[in-house]
UniProtKB/TrEMBL annotation:
Name used for this protein in its record: Endoribonuclease YbeY
Family to which the UniProt record says this protein belongs: Belongs to the endoribonuclease YbeY family.
GO cellular component: cytoplasm
Coiled-coil residue spans: none
Binding positions for Zn(2+) per the UniProt entry: 116, 120, 126
Subcellular location: Cytoplasm
Origin species: Bowdeniella nasicola
Its EC number(s): 3.1.-.-
GO molecular function: metalloendopeptidase activity; RNA endonuclease activity; zinc ion binding
Record keyword Mitochondrion present: no
GO biological process: rRNA processing
Gene field: ybeY
Role noted for this protein: Single strand-specific metallo-endoribonuclease involved in late-stage 70S ribosome quality control and in maturation of the 3' terminus of the 16S rRNA.
Length: 150
């Protein structure tokens, strides 16, 4: 599995932790071992530009996902075809504000956002209440399982 992580901010980020959570999630979701994903941590101004360009919404957001080959989760031992899953862009300063409001660390918030972004790349969405429940329950389970195994 090819997982590239880049920190383009001044924030202190343990990049290996984000590569590890990505590999964990992709393994749990039975994604082909040759799948590729790229995670970028960016400043608020760049995130605001991406948010406006792609979603026509003002200001920075916490995470954005850019799917490439529309790969989907496999079933049990079945794997998907090879390909590029896509890119995830995370804004650490927005994540830090959300973490304070939620009462946990910025690192945990960014791990959650990484999982959230990965699930979007795998075709999950939260536009409808039933879909939101499925996605948010799954991301919570994946995060807690990952954290318990550290």
């Amino acid at each position: 599995m090819s997982v590239d992580v880049a920190n383009e901010t001044g924030a202190a980020i343990e990049l290996t932790e984000f590569a590890a959570v990505t590999r964990f999630v992709l393994d749990e979701m039975h994604v082909h071992p040759q799948a590729e994903v790229f995670i970028r941590f960016v400043e608020e101004d760049e995130m605001a530009e991406l948010h406006e360009k792609w979603l026509d919404l003002p200001g920075p957001t916490d995470v954005m996902s850019f799917p490439m080959d529309e790969l989907r989760p496999g079933k049990d031992a079945e794997h998907l075809s090879e390909g590029c899953l896509g890119d995830i862009v995370i804004c650490p300063s927005v994540a830090a504000k959300q973490a304070r409001d939620a009462g946990h660390s910025s690192a945990e918030e960014m791990l959650l956002l990484t999982i959230h972004g990965l699930l979007h790349l795998l075709g999950f969405d939260h536009a409808e209440p039933a879909d939101e429940k499925v996605m948010f329950d799954l991301q919570r389970k994946l995060l807690l399982t990952f954290l318990a195994g550290r």
